[in-house]
Design brief:
Layout lengths: L1 H39 E5 L3 H18 L19 E8 L5 E8 L9 H5 L19 E8 L2 H6 L19 H4 L5 H16 L3 E6 L1 H10 L4 E2 L4 E2 L3 E8 H6 L3 H19 L1
Parallel strand pairs: 4-5
Antiparallel strand pairs: 1-2, 2-3, 3-4, 5-8, 6-8, 7-8
Helix pairs in contact: 1-9, 6-9
Length: 271
């Protein structure tokens, strides 16, 4: 009789202790990830002309030379109409002072300004209640033009197709191993999320590979697919996420990293 009564209590206590231990480990992981990232990298708010030129140069290297998504040109810069109303970020490697990647948040504020997804992939959005045309200009944005140069992909052992534009090859690594990487691509997505958070933009869109959406879900960013895959710089599908959902499920380990990057961007924009 005593055993029948005590066993559930012991099991319940053991579960609580395991949960608390798991939270402790995650907290330590969070500190390690944030410390590791801040030790080697600095996220820059690339609004000044000289940093925008760095952004366009990285994009040229990845999109025009390495991936051949866009044609080469004499300027050796990859630019388009959306850059005029975008928030740009560039990641600097502190040891070498070189640049490890870039991303932008396209943020239209006027009626004549549109998102890339509206211009090129509007018909791919089949869940029409999420179509960006339903929302006022200034309340929608799109994460786009993420680019990581080959030299830094090589350092991460991410040489497979698609890694230059942010895909994480999580199938090659265990969860513990993934936590040890500097996470350049994830850091860039968190930088975009930081811009969304700092500017309080309610609705965010992105055209990305379904496997990248799975990679983002791995760290707790749960994009909603709002249409079937189409061919646009590779096979991609349209995704949507609201401001609140963007940060609701972010894992504790990456929440610390997100706060670090967001604050870096915020301080620079205020300065």
């Amino acid at each position: 009789m005593d055993i029948a009564i005590n066993k559930p209590k012991q099991t319940s206590l053991l579960k609580k202790l395991k949960r608390l231990w798991g939270l402790f480990l995650k907290f330590n992981d969070a500190r390690k990830i944030s410390k590791h990232f801040s030790r080697y990298f600095l996220m820059l708010d690339a609004q000044k002309p000289e940093l925008k030129n760095v952004v366009y140069g990285i994009r040229y290297q990845v999109y025009c030379i390495e991936e051949e998504f866009e044609p080469a040109n004499d300027t050796q810069q990859e630019r388009d109409e959306f850059d005029a109303y975008s928030l740009h970020c560039v990641l600097q490697h502190l040891g070498s002072q070189s640049f490890a990647g870039t991303v932008r948040v396209v943020w239209p504020k006027h009626d004549n300004e549109v998102l890339p997804i509206e211009r090129y992939c509007s018909e791919s959005i089949t869940e029409l209640e999420y179509h960006p045309s339903n929302f006022p200009r200034g309340s929608v944005c799109e994460i786009s033009r993420l680019a990581v140069p080959f030299d830094f992909r090589r350092r991460q052992a991410d040489k497979f197709d698609g890694s230059g534009t942010g895909v994480i090859n999580e199938s090659d690594y265990s969860e513990d191993e993934l936590r040890c990487f500097p996470f350049i691509a994830i850091g860039l997505y968190l930088a975009a999320a930081g811009q969304v958070y700092n500017h309080r933009i309610p609705h965010t869109y992105v055209m990305m590979e379904p496997r990248l959406a799975k990679s983002m879900a791995f760290i707790g960013i749960r994009f909603k697919q709002i249409g079937p895959p189409v061919y646009y710089h590779g096979v991609r599908a349209p995704y949507y996420i609201s401001h609140d959902v963007f940060f609701e499920h972010l894992s504790p380990s990456f929440n610390v990293m997100f706060d670090l990057i967001r604050n870096q961007l915020k301080v620079q924009s205020l300065g």
